[in-house]
Amino acid sequence: MDKSGAGSDLTASKEYQSFRSSISLKKEAVEHTDGSIKTWSLYDYGPRGVRCPLVFLPPATGTADIFYKQLMSLGAAGFRVLSVEYPVYWSHQEWCDGFSKLLDVLELDSVHLFGASLGGFLAQKFAEFTKSSRRVKSIILCNSFIDTNAFGNLPNHQVYKYSPTFVLKRLVLRSFPRGAMDPDIADSVDFVIEKLDSLNREQLASRLTLNTVPGYVEPHHLNEQEISICLIDVLDQTAISPKVREEVAKCYPEAKVAHLKSGGNFSYLSHDQEVNVYIKVHLRNFANTRFSAGEDFDFGAAAAES
Q1: If you average pLDDT over residues 177-193, what whole number do you get?
Q2: pLDDT 10s digits, 254-265
Q3: Residue 142: closest CA among 287, 267, 281, 285
Q4: Residue 279's CB: how many other CB atoms inside 10 A?
Q5: Would you say residue 203 has pLDDT above 50?
């Protein structure tokens, strides 16, 4: 991994610089029932007429730009794609309520979700949360889990709120691979470590709390909604153990499984071309329907026919 302190290779790349210059980071304020206001950060790229976009949810260590390669590729292909960075929440229920209100602000009745690690867990919890309205049409899970017991090796969730920044960062970095690794994987790790420095103490504490506070997914709530699920299964070393990956697969027997021989914790950065192909294939199932994430569905014509 890069030790020069001059920034990661991905940050310095022309692709990332093009992303930063062409897609602006937006801020959306969400008001909660208790009167509190929390601000979400997000990128929104692609045709605004699309009403069921793909929304990317980052892992505990991620910022909204961690999916910049997906935003650039999929947006250029005609899909509407969003990547969000969530504010401080201390419970899964609170997060789901906040995300639901964010979608209301964005005037999005339904979405497709791509969740990496913690983002994948939250995507499943949100599908449970909105089961009566069936707001989630499909989910892509990458290195995710169904029970926070997957991180039983971490300290109790109650300690993070009071821990100093250096302790929180040390806990996060403990899950990262060490030693020799594929250059593309090393670059992805360097990028994420660099972005980790942009998260403040409270943000880190919140992410780690959500990762470890007792909680689990009840898969039947998703299966009953007939939510289309795709599992991106990375076969080399990741923070998610093979046992946890198997548990996820057993919960969704009808899911499509896309295998990557390598990719590490952040395959959407290290092996983005393969991941982007799998995403496009998944979204193609919704082409020419009102739940398309692309601009192929004519809402005006559909309204006229009805």
Answers
A1: 86
A2: 999 999 988 888
A3: 267
A4: 28
A5: yes
When comparing pLDDT for 239 and 277, which is higher? 277
Evaluate whether 134 touches 112 at the Cβ level (below 8 Å): no
Bridge pairing between strands 111-116 and 136-142: parallel
Give the position of tokens 């046992």: 243
Tokens of 246: 């198997």
Neighbour-count burial of 76, counting CB atoms closer than 10 A to its CB (0-12 exposed, 13-18 middle, 19+ buried)? exposed
> Pairing relation of β-strands 37-45 and 26-31?
antiparallel
Rounded CA-CA distance 297/291 in Å is 8
pLDDT given for residue 88 in this prediction = 96
DSSP-derived secondary structure for the chain: ---SSS--HHHHSHHHHHHHHHS--EEEEEE-TTS-EEEEEEEEES-TT-SS-EEEE--TT--GGGGHHHHHHHHHTTB-EEEEE----SSHHHHHHHHHHHHHHTT-S-EEEEEETHHHHHHHHHHHHTTTTT-EEEEEEES--SBGGGGTTSPPGGGGGGS-HHHHHHHHHTTS--SS--HHHHHHHHHHHHHHTTS-HHHHHHHHHHHHSS-B--HHHHHHTT-EEEEEEE-S--SS-HHHHHHHHHH-TT-EEEEES--GGGHHHHTHHHHHHHHHHHHHTTTTSTT-SBTT--HHHHHHH-
Which amino acid, one-letter code, is at 277? Answer: V
pLDDT tens column, 218-229: 999 999 999 999
- Is the CB of residue 62 less than 8 Å from the CB of residue 116? yes
Q: How confident is the model at residue 10 (pLDDT cuts 50, 70, 90)?
A: very high
What's the pTM?
A: 0.93
What is the CA angle 140-141-142, rounded to 5? 120
Q: Tell me the two tokens of residue 259.
A: 């295998």
